[in-house]
Structures are given as C-alpha cells and as structure tokens.
Amino acid sequence: MIIRLFLLFCLAVATVTTHASTLTQMLPEPDDSQTLTSPDGRMEATFYLIDGIPLYELTRDGKPVIEASRMGFVLEWRDDLAHAFVLKDVQYSTFDEVWHPVWGEEANIRNHYNEMLVTLEQPVGSVESMDHSTEKRPTVMQIRFRLYDDGLGFRYEFPMRYNGIDNALVCFWFKEELTSFHLTGDHTAWWIPGDYDTQEYNYTESRLSQIDSLYEKGHEHGGWPWTDFSRTGVQTALQMRTDDGLYINIHEAATLDYPTMHLNLDPKTFTFRAWLCPDAAGYKGRMQAPCHTPWRTIMVCDKATDALRSRLILNLNDPCALDDVSWIHPVKYMGVWWEMISGKSTWNYTNDFPSVKLNPEPGNSQSSILNSQFTDFAHAKPNGTHGANNANVRRYIDFAAKHGFDALLIEGWNIGWEDWYGKQKDFVFDFLTPYPDFDLPALNKYAHEKGIRLIMHHESSASTVNYERWMEKAYTLMNQYGYDAVKSGYVGTIIPFAEGHYSQPINNHYHYAIVEAAKHHIMVNAHEAVRPTGLYRTWPNMIGNESAMGTEFRERIHPGHTTILPFTRLQGGPMDYTPGIFEPDMGKIVPWGKKMQHTICNQLGLYVTFYSPLQMAADFPEHYEPYLDAFQFIKDVAVDWDTSIYLYAEPGDYIVTARKPKVSSLNKAADGVGQLPDGKKNVISNASRYVYAIPDTVSIFNFQFSIPKDTWYIGGITDENAREFAIKLDFLQPGKTYDAIIYTDAKDASGIPDDSYNPYGYTITKKKVTSKTTLKLRMAPCGGFAVSLRER
Ligand code: NOJ
Ligand code: CA
C-alpha cells in the first residue's frame, strides 16, 4: 500500500524522478480501461483510472506514441479535479463528413473520426470544497476523445447538470492543468521557447534532452517583450520526429475563453505537461459550467508531408458561425510598410514631440482651453521621413493597380506614433485621426477608382483597453470609407498591466475584435496576437495572423525557418509572413542594414509553400521594377486553393508543394471593389487573368462564364543547403498539354551572406509539359523555385 501510494504521489507531482516507462510498468492495474480506435484501425487511445486518477495512452500500429499520461486540473478553493474519480459512463460514436472552408488549402475537407465520451464523477463526500452550497452534489467532468487516422484530440467538458442532478462545479478556477504528454524517447524537436508574450523566435532543432542546455540560444534574436517560465518550456505547435521516423505534433484546437497552452518538459522522463499562460492574478482558466476546454491535439504521421496534409486542428473546430460570408475574400496586397521596417522612412510624422497627448474627443473644438492641452499635429513640423504621405501612398496605389493587386496596407497614417513604442501608454492611439499629410477620404477614393482597397492599420501598442475603447468607432470609420480589412498589432507590454499576451482575458480580447469586426464585415489580420488554433473555420473573417517570426526580422531569420513554420505555426492557421523581398541586402537601403538570407526564387517559392489567403508583395515598387519578369509569378499566383499536394518536405530542410487554384474565389476581391460607389468596375485580378487565360488586351465582362484553364502552381524552398528535386507532373490531366513557366535560382545564386552572396540570380524557362513530364529543379543555398503551369 505504501509503495502504491508513493507511485501515485510520483504521478501527482510534475517532477517525476524515476524513468516514467519503468514507472508505468510498476503502476497498479488500471480500473475501467476504455479504448477508442481510429477509423483506419492503426491508432488506439486508451483511457483509464488508477485509484481514481485519470490517465490516457496513445498507440500507432500497436507501438506506444504517448505512454501513461495524467489528465485533470488543480483548482482554487476546492479539491483538485485530479483524483477520487469514478467512471460513470462511456459513449461511443463515429462521424464522417466532407465540409467546405470559406478559404483554405483545399475546397473539400474530410472530417472522419471515432469518438469516446467518458463521464467521470467525484462522488459526494470524496472531495472537499470551500463552497458549501455545492458540496452535497457530485462533481462531474467529462473527457471527449476524437481519434482520427492522423491524430487524437481530447478536451474536458463540464456540464451544468448530469443525470438530472446539478454539477457541483459552477464557477471554478484553474491553478494548473495537469494534462501530460509522456513521450517514448528523446525525440528530435523543432521548438521555440515557452513565453507568455512573444512567439517571435527562430526555431531550434534539438533532441528533447537538449532543450535545457539550449535555452539561451533558443532566445537569441527573438522578439520583445519576452516572459519565460522555465528552461524547459516550449510553445506549441511543437513538431517532433522519433528515431523510427514518426512525426508527432502537439498543439491545441479551438482555444476560446481559455489561456494558451505551452508545454514544460521533464527531461528525465520525456514528459511534457500543459503549462497555461496565467492571468494577472495567476489563474490559468476561470470557468463557468456548462463549459469546456480547448482540444489538446497529438498529430501522428508516418511522413513529414502527411503532417502538412493533416486537417486535424481545423476539423476539431466548430463549423462557420457566420450566416453570410459573401464579403470575405482572399487578398493579394502591397504596403507602405517595408519602408518603415527597413528604416527608409518612419511611422511618425514629426520629430517635435517626445510626448504626445491625444484628445479623447477627436475633432472637438468646443473648448480652446481643453484643446490646448493636447498635441497639435496641425501645426507640427513634418520630419520629411513620414512614409504614409499622400504622394507616396499614391505612388504605391499606382504600382499596385498597374500590377493587378487587390489592396494596399498603409501604416503610420494615424496620429500618435511619436511616442508609441515601449512607453506603456494606455491612451496611445485613437485609430480615427489621420496625420495632416494623409488625406484619408481622398486616398480611399483614389484607390477605389483604380480598383484597389486600402487596408486599415490599428497598432494597439498592446493597450487592449484602449483598443476596445475605440474599436466601434474605428470599425465604423472603416465602413464609412470602404476599408474591409484591418491589420491590428499588439507590440509591447499588455495593458491591463500584468497580463501576458496569451492569458485568458487577452485571448478573449483578440476574439472580441474578430466578432466585432464580423458585425462590420471586416476581415482581420492580427500581429503579435495569440497563435491560431484553427478558429478561422468558425470565424473566416480572421484571414491572417503573424504570431511568429516573420519577414520584419530581416537578417535575424535563420535559413530554413520557413521550412519549419508550416509544421508548427501554420498548423493553426495562416501567417501574414509578408514575403517577396527582392532586395534582401538591407545595407543598400540604410547604412546599418544587413544581408537577409534568401534568394529571389526562395521568395517566389514561399507563395506556394506557405498557405495564406492574405499574401503580401512586401518590397518597394522600385525593388520590383528591375525584376518584373520574376515579379510576374507573384502577380500570377493564386491565394486560395482547390487542391494542395505536398510533394517533398522535411522540417528545417525543404518543402515542395503544388497547388491548384480555387476558381470560385479568384476575382472576389476585385468584384468587391467594383461594388463600392466610387469603385472601379469589372477589374480582373492578375491571377484571374492568368487562370482564365484572358489576354492582357481584353477587358472582359463575363469571364466567370468562360471555362477556366486547368492551372497549377509549384513552389519549393530550401535552407542553407542547395538541393535538387525531381518533380513528376502526374497530377496534371492526362492527355493535355500545359505551358510551364519555371523560375529557378541561377547557378551562382546564393543567399549565404559571405563572398558568394548573390540573391538576385535567377533563370526563367518556358516549356511545354504533360502529366508524363518530370521537372528536375535545383535550389541554391537559401534558395527556392516556382513554377506556373497553365493548360494550353
Ligand atoms: C509589428 C508588426 O509585426 C509589424 O508588421 C508592424 O509594422 C509594426 N508592429 C508596427 O505596427
Ligand atoms: Ca511582429
């Protein structure tokens, strides 16, 4: 008995000193073991109780993937949801459907799983509670398991009533989630450090056992502010590979009204435990029944390409919550943005004000005494470096319109940028008042007349309080002038103070912004917000997120970074990575600039290997002008897909992907501009023109009714190593001939920032191909390739 109690104690604490597989063998026999099998019969999830403690295991082809692992919670004010459970009921079901995302990597997604719903009870008298009003009721916790051919999802549910009796759990607070993932060995992992405030890190590839010793290195060149919690803490989606070649990915799905889950490793047992981001008071989930947690997901694939093909996270999210999605569309855009990131120009309009005080009633001129207290931009001296000025914005609109883009982002249009950064100001922007040199109505009109929408920018400077204060007015202003998309940002320390970027209240803020935006028919691309968990299935107006290290980190981005992101960050949803930098030597823009590590063809490849319905051509117009033949690929490529085929992939090394455009959404953005009162009608986007094979000279009205050509795009990217791939075009329709335009790195191209640096070298080849053709394509160090294929 003493030994048994000791073993249970070992299970109950986070640090287990014995090797856990030995521990599992020594455990007493489980009670009430329940097993769930995947539709293909290869995966098995088992749930059981040992002396009232809930545990689960997962196997594939009979071999363990997750060994005996804890489930449950530590609570405030009452006994934990971690012991004293009895099994009340088990229900099995199966589900199989095909659904159609509003946008995505494919038009048809199969959601096929077997489900097991386990109901557990802590009987009256078995646990203690400070809430005496509920202690005469049983405590009910359910665990819903969904097992797919490519992985497991499970979540905890807390019904209000069970079997006609009220649950003892009403309002309850989590201090810890005990969910654990006991892995079978020292797997290779691609990880970023666990952090309550940023995901802007390079990935580190290492064995699990090396995470602790690589802790400092894992933080190098990362984002700000950073708030770590453990030397062995990592973020999800965490991609791993076993020595047997199995690809295991731990993440979460549908994180709503709950903190984000990071993981903390016990390196002695290779056991990760859920590590939730606490709120300002230290709580890790404030729950009110009926409620449930997000899904905890364990994807298991035989091949790396299968991990890219998996729709596990999306399938675990709820169907679309919006009745009308006609206003949601893919967007290819440019921006008055890289100018500021590169240092060429500034967000701020003047250098006059070290401190800015904004008028809480913008435009109010009732009281001259009051007005004199606020910063007067109208009479400020322009600094001459402000990027968002009328002339410059018009220059970008002209270029974007000429090359068939849908939209233009402009940052630094609104007052307040003079002291926005690092000051932890509550009232930092009003999101309404333009700088004197940004004529908002006129620029929108100018853009619309050319078939371009302007994308709004709301940098909250992490003051969620202030953003919520202004949100309704800000969205209304957008509606008034025809903006239908906003890029929001959360740079800096969160206000309310002491909250982290991924705590429950702040996750609720990001969601609030999406829901409110949907009421205004506004699409949202949030930077520095929580990394996505597939919620775009339910809220498809969430068309993008940054939430990872993106192009703005320039030379700090390691080669190979973009070959890891689709396995990790992109599992939850698309990223506004902002590719397309054709002048990667930043030293040519500003004296302190350094060399970014990629070739032009690498950037082209990203438009296919990275899925996003929102894709940017991030560089300056003048950097595209010398390379318009290569730029043509960015113009032609689609951003929403019918079919995606993952040809070759290995995290950290390379990705080669082929995709076929979804024709129904091809011209949606251009059509939307045409519906604006001042919008240019019958604009055909470049991608539509390419896919439908409409000659440049033709202005066509009913092109939707013409039969589109069969069109495919292929993209490839590599890390610092040159590679060659043989690409069989057997996905093309047999018997048809296609024109291929092939963009490859020149023989001497290289993105390595030494004497060999030549990011600019590329070759464009045109040839006839069929489904029997095999293309042999080489990528330079830090390089890539892109191919467009169009039926003749
Ligand atoms: C960080 C964002 O990621 C970047 O895109 C933006 O330009 C700056 N914040 C300013 O809002
Ligand atoms: Ca950022």
What does this protein structure show overall?
With about 800 residues, the chain is α+β, with helices and mostly antiparallel strands. About 20% of the residues lie in helices and about 30% in strands. The strands form seven sheets. Strands 6, 7, 8, 9, 14, 15, 17, 18, 22 and 23 form a ten-stranded antiparallel sheet that branches. It is globular and about 75 Å long. The model is unreliable at about 1-25 (pLDDT under 50). 1-deoxynojirimycin binds next to loops.
Properties at a glance:
binds 1-deoxynojirimycin, 17 helices, binds calcium ion, ten-stranded antiparallel β-sheet, 38 strands, 792 residues, alpha+beta, disordered N terminus
Write a compact overview of the structure shown.
The chain is α+β, with helices and mostly antiparallel strands and about 800 residues long.
Topology:
Blueprint: H1 2-12, H2 20-26, E1 31-37, E2 43-50, E3 53-60, E4 63-70, E5 73-75, E6 86-99, E7 109-122, E8 139-148, E9 151-158, E10 161-162, E11 165-166, E12 171-177, E13 180-183, E14 188-191, E15 204-207, H3 215-219, E16 233-234, E17 238-241, E18 247-253, E19 261-266, E20 271-276, E21 286-288, E22 291-292, E23 295-301, H4 304-309, H5 312-315, E24 331-336, H6 338-342, H7 368-371, H8 390-402, E25 407-410, H9 440-449, E26 453-459, H10 464-481, E27 485-489, H11 504-519, E28 523-527, E29 542-545, H12 561-564, H13 600-609, E30 614-616, H14 621-624, H15 628-636, E31 641-650, E32 654-661, H16 668-674, H17 686-692, E33 711-718, E34 723-728, E35 738-745, E36 762-769, E37 774-779, E38 784-791
Helix pairs in contact: 10-11, 13-15
The chain binds 1-deoxynojirimycin and calcium ion.
The site of calcium ion (CA) has 5 residues, from loops.
